[in-house]
Specification:
Oligomer: single chain
Shape: globular
Helix content: 25-40%
CATH architecture of the largest domain: 3-Layer(aba) Sandwich
Structural class: alpha/beta
Distance between the termini: 28 Å
CATH superfamily of the largest domain: Type I PLP-dependent aspartate aminotransferase-like (Major domain)
Radius of gyration: 21 Å
Number of strands: 15
Strand order of the largest sheet: 4-10-9-8-7-5-6
Order of helices and strands: EEEHHHEHEHHEHEHEEEHHEEHEEEH
């Protein structure tokens, strides 16, 4: 692709200097025919790989029947999807939208409705430093990144920020902010560099929320749907939140998001209080149902847990003592390698070696490969990324 080509697209992305034309499994081919191993999966979206034959068949079949009717009538596939997600999460009901940011917005509206029903006129939500919750105005206001927020002031109010993984800081906020109605957090922070909280942190947050009567909201947009070795990452600590925000991998590339709720949050909405034109359409919902069916049938969560542990172990052995490497961390196939310098240029060097990776927070190589990769492909990722680090 000609990097000097003019474009009528708004200048919102620092794109890689190539265009992908097709994919199969964990592989991508660009417009020149070069083949790449995909270690980012559309930022965790294509969890079952590219051009999965069963998903392709379902999309084609449903597109030939009915794509959209709006929510003016019952949508059976939406009902089926809601039942599947509620069962997986151990919760009660679901609102289906089109994206992660939308379901975060849905969660925040539920928090405010529940709080107002309790007489809290100006409810506050505790959020985490270095978090990421999306690009809408309220979601970026909740996000713990000035880079994301800069230029969009005045931001939406009602957020209290504390350090991630620090239960004492959360306890201190509880003692000093009487208007708190909820805690919203990612079980593992993705955009800030695959930050894993201390063991027991989520259980401690759940206990504090129970004690204070707060809602616990887990943003599982990146961590959910088998990525970390469980259906949802909060399940590693046997924690059931009051609200889960789920998206990314849910339909393997077809836009969809789901806000899953229980208890007070599950019954807060009434007709006319929330909605979506495109959300929950038959095409997206049927595709999502097929994705969940395949994930369960093929034991994708277990595969991600096993292969992820192998990858982390291989990195630790290969790069043990290397001066440039600070840390290898993650869970399942959500892995970050923290480097002691800025390494954004490694995205381009990886392309030269036939590998697609991502760098987040400027110094963390983030790996979110399709959950269907095999041991040989995992080894190729380890070898290529390790060689990039060794060349620093």
């Amino acid at each position: 692709m000609d990097s000097m080509k003019t474009s009528q697209l708004m200048n919102t992305y620092a794109r890689l200097p190539l265009a992908f034309e097709r994919g199969e499994g964990a592989w991508l081919w660009d417009s020149s025919g070069k083949k790449y191993l995909d270690a980012i999966a559309g930022i965790g979206v294509c969890a079952l790989g590219h051009s999965h034959p069963e998903i392709t068949e379902v999309i084609a079949d449903q597109a030939g029947q009915l794509i959209h009717t709006a929510n003016l009538a019952e949508i059976p596939w939406q009902e089926t999807l809601a039942a599947k997600l509620a069962g997986i999460a151990g919760m009660e009901n679901v609102f289906v939208a089109n994206s992660g940011a939308e379901v975060v917005e849905c969660a925040m509206k539920l928090i405010r409705l529940v709080a107002h029903s309790k007489g809290i006129d100006r409810p506050e939500i505790v959020v985490m430093e270095n978090s990421f919750h999306g690009r809408t105005l309220a979601a970026l206001s909740a996000t713990g990144s000035r880079k994301v927020q800069a230029g969009y002031e005045p931001l939406v109010g009602g957020f209290v920020r504390v350090p991630f993984g620090d239960i004492d800081a959360l306890e201190n906020a509880a003692a000093n902010r009487p208007g708190i109605a909820a805690v919203m957090l990612e079980p593992i922070q993705g955009e800030s560099g695959v930050q894993v909280p201390p063991e027991g942190y989520l259980q401690a947050v759940r206990a504090l929320c129970d004690r204070k009567g707060w809602l616990m909201v887990c943003d599982e947009i990146q961590t959910g749907l088998c990525r970390t070795g469980k259906w949802y990452a909060s399940q590693h600590e046997d924690v059931t939140p009051d609200i889960i925000a789920s998206a990314k991998a849910l339909a393997n590339g077809i836009p969809i998001g789901a806000c899953i709720a229980r208890g007070e949050a599950a019954s807060a909405f009434s007709p006319g209080r929330h909605g979506s034109t495109f959300g929950g359409n038959p095409l997206a919902c049927r595709t999502a149902c097929k994705v969940l069916e395949i994930m369960e049938r093929d034991e994708v969560a277990e595969h991600a847990a096993t292969l992820g542990a192998q990858i982390v172990d291989s990195f630790n052995k290969r790069l043990d003592g290397h001066a440039s490497l600070r840390d290898v961390r993650g869970r399942g196939l959500m892995i970050g390698l923290e480097i002691n310098q800025e390494v954004n240029h490694l995205k381009f060097k990886a392309l030269e070696k036939g590998l697609v990776i991502n760098v987040t927070h400027d110094n963390v190589i983030r790996l979110l490969p399709p959950l269907i990769i095999d041991s040989e492909q995992a080894g190729q990722i380890v070898d290529t990324v390790s060689s990039l680090i060794e060349e620093l």
